[in-house]
What does this fold into?
Amino acid sequence: MKKTFLSFLLATAALFSCHTNSTPAKAGSDTAILVIPLASTPYFYTQLKGVVGGKHITMQLLKTAPHLFGGYYCYDSIGQPVNIWGSLDSNLVKLYEETTAGGEERFFGGTLSDDGIFKGVWHGDSTSHHFELHTDLRRAVPFRVYYDTDSLHLIASNPQSPIGMVSSSIIWPDSSVDSSLATFLKRQITSSTYVTTPEQYIKMDMDSFKISYQVAAKDADSSELNDETQANSWNWTTDDAMRIVWNTWPYLVIEKYSYDFTGGAHGNWNAVYITLDLSKKKVITPADIFKTGYKEKLSPLLDKAFRKKYKIGEDEMLYQNLLVKTIPANDNLIVTDKGVAFSYVPYEIGPYALGQVTLFIPFTELKPLLKN
It folds into this structure.
């Protein structure tokens, strides 16, 4: 059975009046921020700000699929993005934080309201704190979120055959964004100069999966399909999604997440990050930030960050936990106002079970390696 739908929602509108070229929206755009009705909106992006445990935080929150939430938050004084994801259960949104193995569960539990507020209790560190986060997009680029899903049988004529499922969500700059900036953003989002609408991008993404599944069906042996275990390996799944990690002018960080199961013991997934300097309409690379010869000097700092995050003692060799003796710098960057994170997809430096490893280094430690 084929199921398909496409929905989108305005994530926010104009920021403030009298914008200049150093702000996200069009010059002379209207004044008030339109607050997203978070409780009733099917899909959305918003930025929230508030206080948790006496510390100011900023949260990038997206609803990218039915009942599915995700994004990042950071303590403003630290600037280190923390991955969050969760779902809706009886009007309660529960957003779990990324933690290392054996770490205490940390999460935001609360309700979303149509006046743009996320309110509830944060749990973690053997304590809890009440919070109330409010929409605040004054220095952020407004986006819409689009989503679609589809499915098809491996053998079209056999409704009992395995099913391939594909879903895709995409962020898209709102119409209030300056046209030249919007064009730049669309090219970075789609990695294309000829994809002009989010619907076109999603259709291409989903058609690619369906064609691959139909081609693979030609190799399916009837004996496989009659064996339940083997047949399950043909229940392919692809899930592509985009999230915003950081959105404070002039920097924007976009995450492109992809999960694929095409048979085997487990699926494969990864997250690729794009850091943008919006004022220059430029993708930021390590060469833009660091002095020549930075890679060799960064490795000890990355090793240190890994040991701290995963609680590895100095007397333990890294290769006992990783696939490398020392962690090399790569190009999968997240840049914030307080530091730089390097992110490594599964198998890049560690085993699959370790997942994606993201290591944040504050500018205070990076200072000798930074360009002026």
About this structure: The two ends are 58 Å apart (CA to CA). The chain has three domains: 34-135, 143-283, 286-369.
